[in-house]
């Protein structure tokens, strides 16, 4: 940014004068917490630089940002080398098919070794990584030409025929970088401004985009981040992939099953804390858009599929602790604003316990949230100790029946409930006939199945990994009224669970641990004690790499323990694996104190009517009274 004259003076986050880490919490902690944007121009090109968090507790913010990048620069310390978060970023880049550049930083520090780290990158990530030499000469370095020709048939033929010129070479190498066939690395020291200007010059030379060709096409855009300015204006940060946006444009987008239309009232190009208003945003540009009140992170505009996984799963949840005098409704509204900015929080109100519940990645995130709520909304809060988020499913297949017929009401629903693949969530299928149930009522039942997380009967945890099929149902022309099918659907679901083989699931982490050989035995013992599983360790010299998965409940604090007994030399990568069978089911059920028979929202019984009076039939007796059986 300094060399492109975007800023006049260089800053440092630990000196609290960084151009992008401007939030008071970032200055206080000396880390990046929020993704910030800078716009810079270099040799006639315009760049949108997005600086993402590096701490694992804020990885959802980083993951959402990756969806709008054209190129990714991964910064690696020349002292510490590959860390757990580095591995996670590399894996996500592969999932998003992002071309990657590496910058090996802190080469001025004691113990630094750029060549050692380059070897690590090759061994752990890809043998197709090359340290960029000077490219300003008539022809690039011969080693780069040989490296590239080995991976490109066209270059190889020209090279052997001695007909290779610089223009053809650079064009081919650009394609190879875009296609992730090769990855370029450079080294230096950002603190001492060593190698930075040279790296950016080579980055400029070896990258290209084709957005100008897409400006005349139909609009395609992605909302990847939501923030609020100091006046609490909601800002939707949007990357335009094709076409363009104009102020006063009316944007149409889908929210669940609704089609919404809202008008753009203002657009801003942000660079750090400052911004410039603009009337137009072209393909390839990123802007803060005002006027969209309901669009969420992952919302798309134009002919573009809605992005998935924008509400990342987390393994921990906690409750908010606040004084009795605090207005709970307003506090919940404040947390909903924060959830719009970070969907992984998954804010929920537990009407039974009267608690605001928050999903989190870790304890550092809780400290930040506590400060944010105080600073932005004026509430003094705290959080309870985080608990593991459990879920429930079933084994096999059952049918569930629900009937709701108190006086002047009527609805009956038949469902088939069966196990679905692990980590697939809830899948709905409709096999009902319109001869039995109108299309509108069939859709209403679908809505009641999918509108919320339903509770299981073991611990009251959310249900998952189920395929729920609507078999049939019945309404009454005169007596069916609003809410009847919700009652019947919930009762059918719960009645089926009562008959099923219910399973308790817990979150698992997938891990990769790299340690010196003398620590391998300790690591294996720790994994076994944590009820984890692993594949055979891979030995490379005096290093060992071991991969596997373990329950989050037993492995949450392991990174700290590993650093302690390895003297900081052990490297661990943890990522959320998903849910699997709970290793201590009875202990968790006992600790939950959930009473399935005392959950007014989810009765398993049904209500029938005779002689002008409703009566209740328990779940194990209802099938003999169902009207459609």
From TrEMBL:
Membrane-spanning segments: none
Protein name: Small GTP-binding protein domain-containing protein
Matches recorded under Pfam families: EFG_C, EFG_III, EFG_IV, GTP_EFTU
Domain Tr-type G residues, every copy: 1-211
Keyword terms, alphabetized: Antibiotic resistance, GTP-binding, Nucleotide-binding, Protein biosynthesis
Region (Disordered): 1-21
Organism: Halanaerobium kushneri
Domain of life: Bacteria
């Amino acid at each position: 940014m300094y060399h492109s004259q975007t800023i006049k003076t260089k800053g440092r986050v630990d000196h609290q004068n960084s151009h992008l880490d401007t939030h008071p919490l970032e200055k206080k902690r000396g880390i990046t917490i929020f993704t910030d944007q800078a716009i810079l121009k270099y040799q006639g090109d315009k760049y949108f630089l997005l600086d993402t968090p590096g701490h694992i507790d804020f990885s959802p913010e980083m993951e959402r940002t990756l969806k709008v990048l054209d190129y990714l620069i991964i910064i690696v310390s020349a002292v510490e080398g590959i860390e757990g978060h580095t591995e996670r970023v590399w894996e996500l880049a592969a999932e998003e098919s992002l071309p990657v550049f590496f910058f090996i930083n802190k080469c001025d520090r004691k113990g630094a070794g750029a060549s050692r780290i380059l070897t690590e990158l090759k061994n752990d990530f890809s043998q197709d990584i090359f340290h960029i030499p000077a490219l300003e000469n008539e022809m690039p370095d011969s080693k780069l030409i040989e490296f590239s020709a080995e991976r490109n048939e066209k270059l190889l033929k020209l090279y052997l025929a001695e007909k290779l010129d610089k223009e053809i070479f650079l064009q081919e190498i650009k394609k190879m970088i875009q296609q992730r066939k090769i990855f370029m690395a450079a080294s230096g020291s950002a603190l001492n401004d060593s190698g930075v200007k040279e790296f950016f010059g080579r980055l400029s030379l070896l990258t290209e985009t084709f957005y100008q060709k897409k400006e005349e096409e139909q609009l395609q855009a992605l909302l990847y981040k939501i923030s609020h300015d100091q006046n609490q204006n909601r800002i939707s940060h949007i990357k335009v992939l094709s076409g363009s946006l104009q102020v006063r444009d009316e944007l149409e987008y889908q929210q669940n099953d609704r089609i919404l239309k809202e008008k753009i009232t203002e657009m801003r190009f942000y660079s750090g804390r400052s911004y410039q208003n603009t009337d137009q945003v072209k393909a390839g540009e990123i802007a803060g858009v005002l006027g969209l009140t309901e669009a969420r992170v992952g919302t798309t505009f134009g002919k573009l599929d809605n992005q998935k996984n924008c509400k990342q799963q987390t393994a921990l949840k906690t409750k908010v602790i606040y004084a009795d005098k605090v207005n709970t409704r307003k506090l919940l509204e404040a947390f909903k604003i924060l959830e719009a900015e970070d969907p992984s929080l998954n804010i929920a109100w537990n009407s039974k316990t009267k608690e605001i519940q928050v999903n989190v990645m870790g304890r550092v995130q809780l400290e930040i949230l506590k400060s944010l709520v105080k600073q932005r909304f004026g509430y003094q809060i705290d959080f309870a100790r985080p608990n593991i988020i459990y879920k429930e499913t079933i084994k096999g297949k059952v049918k569930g029946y629900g009937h709701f017929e108190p006086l002047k009401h009527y609805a009956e629903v038949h469902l088939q409930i069966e196990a679905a693949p692990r980590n697939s969530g809830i899948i709905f299928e409709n096999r009902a006939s319109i001869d039995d149930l109108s299309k509108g009522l069939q859709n209403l039942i679908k809505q009641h199945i999918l509108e919320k997380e339903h509770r299981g009967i073991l611990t009251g945890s959310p249900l998952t990994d189920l395929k729920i099929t609507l078999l049939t149902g019945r309404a009454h022309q005169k007596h069916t009224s609003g809410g009847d099918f919700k009652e019947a659907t919930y009762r059918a679901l719960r009645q089926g669970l009562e008959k099923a083989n219910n399973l308790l699931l817990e979150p698992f982490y997938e891990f990769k641990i790299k340690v010196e050989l003398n620590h391998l035995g300790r690591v294996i013992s720790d994994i076994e004690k944590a009820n984890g599983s692993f594949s055979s360790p891979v030995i490379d010299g005096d290093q060992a790499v071991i991969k596997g998965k373990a329950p989050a409940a037993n492995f949450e604090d392991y990174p700290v323990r590993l650093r302690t007994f390895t003297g900081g030399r052990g490297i661990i990568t943890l990522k959320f694996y998903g849910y699997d069978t709970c290793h201590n089911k009875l202990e968790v059920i006992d600790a939950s104190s959930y009473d399935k028979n005392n959950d007014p929202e989810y009765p398993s019984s049904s209500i029938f009517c005779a002689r002008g009076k409703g009566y209740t039939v328990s779940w194990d007796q209802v099938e003999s009274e169902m009207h459609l059986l």
